[in-house]
Amino acid sequence: MQTSAAETLALKALAFLASDGQLLVRFMRLSGVNPEDLRERADDPLLLAAVIDFVLGDDKLLFAFAQDATLDPKLIREARRALPGNAPEA
After folding, report:
1. Where exactly are the structural domains of the chain?
2. CA 22 to each of CA 27, 28, 40, 75: distance values in angstroms, whole numbers, following the listed order
């Protein structure tokens, strides 16, 4: 998967998290990002990788996002490998 496609997918995941205030707060708490940082860094590949890591860390969330975005969950794992940082083993 191209990096740009992975970033687009991660932005969709971020929008999915933002649609549920509790999920977004949980992500921000775990990642140490505040709302201002999130707005300023929404296009940062490292932040986008963290979003995908968060989604991949919870199977229920992974499948909910995949269903919402009409994606195969495998594509989400593939997107993570295209983003910077150490992708968790799947």
Report:
1. 3-82
2. 9, 10, 21, 25
Contact 3, 83 (CB under 8 A): yes
Exposure string (b/e) for 28-58, b if CB count within 10 Å is 16 or more? Answer: beeeebeeeebeeeeeebebbbbbbbbbbee
Q: Tell me the pLDDT tens digit for each residue of 5-42.
A: 999 999 999 999 999 999 999 999 999 999 999 999 98
Q: Scanning the structure block, which residue is given the tokens 């229920």? A: 60
Amino acid, single-letter form, for residue 45: P
